[in-house]
Design goal:
The protein is an alpha/beta fold and 271 residues long. The chain has one domain: 3-Layer(aba) Sandwich (UDP-N-acetylmuramoyl-L-alanine:D-glutamate ligase), CATH 3.40.1190. 37% of the residues lie in helices and 19% in strands.
Amino acid sequence: MIRNVLSIAGSDPSGGAGVQADLKAFSARGVYGMAVLTALTAQNTQGVSGVHLVPPPFVADQIDAVFADVRVDAVKIGMIANAAIAEAVAAALSTAKGRSVPVVLDPVMIAKGGAALLAPEAVDMLTLRLLPLATLLTPNLPEAAALLHQPVATNRTEMAAQAEQLRALGPASVLVKGGHLDSDESPDVLAAADGLHWFEARRVPTKNTHGTGCTLSSALAAELAKGASAPEAVAIAKDYLAGAVAAAGHLTVGSGHGPVQHFHALWKDGA
């Protein structure tokens, strides 16, 4: 049976991040993708120049329409933008159907080019209303620090401590991504019910990293929808993302932070 996975996130017209990246990752991982828009952005590989928010009641209407008709096997939440949208998403997913599916929450706060994608006053609403709904929370180091109102972790010990502190706020599991560490390694740590799991990776020398967080969280949602445990999903999704980043040079998209090659395992080079 092909699983159905819903993305609740913002749009990236250049196709590298947001719901566009989510839908590509869903397809590449063999699930049927759906998307609820929370925001329209004007952006490309060089940065974000504008954001137009979808009214919160309409965000909820989109979610309700999908759940009223389609079996949803997992949900990925990306860009929320503000407190009102966070509340609308939380309320819509708190229905009986919404509570029965895995939820991957990627707390999108800052774009690759530095633009803020989450209002500061929305951080606490996201923490109070959405974190308890999450099966898996996937913050990078700055996002983990912002959610906890702490300094950014600079080593593995601090990463592990923040992962466990975030898990205490409600998510079943928390994956803290170490890509911002100042080292040749890029370790991630998963805090789960059975303890800590470390996932090692070497840093890939490329500027084509636009949408990596969106792509990873979507791949995670796809694997959870297919029945994988959190550690299994992380291992599979990280391997998929590593291949997508390694093959990003085959694309010629923009002159800034280019996108990853979501279909690296399906397309022939140069096709």
